[in-house]
Specification:
It holds the Pfam family Peptidase_M14. This is Inactive metallocarboxypeptidase ECM14. It comes from Schizosaccharomyces octosporus (strain yFS286). Its cofactor is Zn(2+). By secondary structure, the chain is an alpha/beta fold. Helix content is 38%, strand content 16%. The chain folds into two domains: 395 residues, Aminopeptidase; 61 residues, Alpha-Beta Plaits (2-Layer Sandwich), CATH 3.30.70. The protein has 16 helices and 14 strands. Strands 7-8-10-9-11-14-12-13 form an eight-stranded mixed β-sheet, sandwiched between helices. A hairpin with a 5-residue loop joins strand 7 and strand 8. Helix 8 crosses helix 9 and helix 10 packs across helix 16. The structure holds 2-acetamido-2-deoxy-beta-D-glucopyranose (NAG) (2 copies) and zinc ion (ZN). One 2-acetamido-2-deoxy-beta-D-glucopyranose (NAG) binds next to strand 7 and helix 13.
């Protein structure tokens, strides 16, 4: 209840600004920044999500009903790594690779076969279909948010507009949302707080969608001022859904608390925050329509029928142009070949003509495994000069996060230390490039909930707790950077 009251307070303040908002809408029509097609309405009613026969549910249920997710432990079996390599060669879906275990999604029959070779295992998900269906329902009423028609909204009087904003916000975090709803929400936020932020496009994907970024700057009069930038990027990997509502939540709280929270106001006045909740736009759309566990983007590839580049292997540091295009880890033939990576490269490395700002913070949000990771991801043989500083900040971040809901996040270098015989390389990682090439001072990869109970199928009821603890951590991050001598 008190949250609703608070929201009301936030809404009344910017009401006057809605006139400005309407002007901005009119401008949207002419602006190159937006592709109108994104905002076309599909329905005007709030629909109850049909978990039965319609659309993706039936499709996905059939697809994954024989699938399991199993954690294979590395220790106690000399042949383990060999078997895991074998799993890779059979193109099994590897969910998570750590130094001590590997989580794999595989069909029941294949699972039996592998368990006979690696007895040291734990079944994480015994029926993927069932857990997938459960992850989509918050236990409360399950609503599929309709996309909003902003042509109509631009003529909507203030009061119903604010009501719509409140209603949309309230529903938004109850469940995972599809791309249209996310875009609608971001645009709604940008409209409500048009004095504090703007929604822009960083580029276009292979399938022609806009990569949207919310640029939050506070109410500093001179926008050309050389403000330092903190960039937050989510969903480089399409199936890591939790990163989207988590980043939307942070964007929402930053703008909504600007006037009421001194700490937030200082952070927005000092830095420009650029938040990209859905970097892999095409891939995310694909996880709703075809394959819940799709990871890469959807770019067509030369000389291959397989599609997609893994965005977190496509950056210019330690890039590996080889590899099988059909592989989930395929990072492209050239660095920045993926439109999404190229768009972020331009943003981070300051090469856009209008950008005269330097990026000091960069958080690349992934899931799962609850960890705060710093460069280098490429190999544990490389130690960053800032290792101690990273460690200090990471410890602070995990501590603050822990205070919110008691969750434990680990913190370490992003590389995976395998045994002496087998080395693990992570070519073309975003944080490595950000740190080494773009000289971003504080780059981290954050891997959100959970530690494997649900993995990518984190239940919707965990959206808000995950977002809340992340937001606490984010404020600490901003404060640390603003106080750090660098
Ligand atoms: C897995 O769950 C789905 C959905 O509840 C069900 O239709 C299917 O039969 C289950 N599969 C097995 C092997 O139990
Ligand atoms: C992105 O992909 C499209 C379609 O392949 C292409 O036409 C466009 O030029 C690309 N944009 C950038 C910024 O690379
Ligand atoms: Zn990831």
């Amino acid at each position: 209840m008190s949250r609703t009251l608070k929201l009301c307070a936030y809404v009344f303040a910017p009401l006057i600004l809605l006139i400005t908002v309407i002007c901005i809408y009119l401008d949207f029509g002419n602006s190159q920044k937006f592709r109108n097609s994104i905002w076309e309405p599909k329905s005007s009613n709030w629909e109850v999500l049909d978990e039965g026969s319609s659309g993706i549910w039936a499709n996905m249920n059939a697809k994954y009903q024989n699938d399991q997710v199993i954690r294979f432990y590395h220790e106690g079996n000399d042949a383990t790594r060999e078997v895991l390599l074998y799993a890779e060669s059979r193109n099994l879906d590897i969910w998570n690779t750590g130094s001590r275990y590997t989580d794999i999604r595989l069909r029941r029959e294949v699972a039996k076969e592998m368990i006979s070779m690696i007895p040291n295992h734990k079944v994480l998900i015994s029926n993927v279909s069932m857990v997938l269906a459960n992850s989509m329902s918050s236990g409360q009423e399950t609503k599929n948010l309709p996309p909003l028609d902003f042509n109509t909204l631009s003529t909507m009087p203030q009061e119903p507009f604010s009501k719509l904003y409140l209603k949309y916000t309230e529903e938004f975090y109850k469940n995972y949302q599809n791309l249209e709803a996310i875009n609608s929400y971001l645009r709604l936020l940008a409209s409500m707080y048009s004095d504090l932020c703007e929604l822009t496009s960083l580029g276009t994907t292979a399938e022609g969608r806009s990569i949207l970024a919310l640029r939050i700057h506070g109410r500093i009069p001179n926008k050309d001022e050389k403000k330092e930038v903190i960039i937050l990027q989510g969903t480089a990997h399409a199936r890591e859904w939790i990163s989207i509502p988590t980043l939307c939540y942070s964007a929402w709280k930053l703008v909504a608390q600007y006037d009421s929270d001194n700490r937030v106001r200082k952070l927005l006045d000092k830095f420009e925050w650029i938040i990209v909740p859905v970097l892999n736009v095409d891939g995310y759309a694909y996880t709703w329509s075809e394959d819940r566990f799709w990871t890469k983007n959807r770019q067509s590839l030369k000389n291959s029928n397989c599609k997609g580049i893994n965005i977190d292997n496509n950056w210019g540091f330690g890039f590996n142009g080889q590899g099988n295009p059909c592989d989930e880890l395929f990072g492209g033939l050239e660095p920045f070949e993926a439109n999404e990576t190229f768009a972020m490269f331009n943003l981070i490395s300051n090469t856009l003509p209008k950008e005269k700002k330097s990026t000091v913070g960069f958080l690349d949000i992934h899931s799962y495994s609850q960890s705060v990771l710093w460069p280098y991801a490429y190999s544990c043989d490389l130690l960053p000069a800032d290792d101690e500083n990273f460690q200090e900040l990471a410890m602070g971040l995990t501590k603050v996060l822990h205070q919110v809901h008691g969750r434990l996040y680990s913190h370490q270098q992003a590389c995976i230390p395998f045994d002496g015989i087998h080395k693990h390389y992570h070519p073309g990682a975003a944080i490595d490039f950000a740190y080494f090439n773009a000289e971003v001072r504080w780059p981290f990869t954050i891997r959100l909930r959970d530690v494997g109970d649900y993995g990518y199928l984190l239940p919707a009821r965990e959206i808000v707790p995950t977002s809340r603890e992340f937001y606490a951590m984010l404020l600490y991050y901003g404060q640390f950077i603003s106080e750090a001598a660098y």
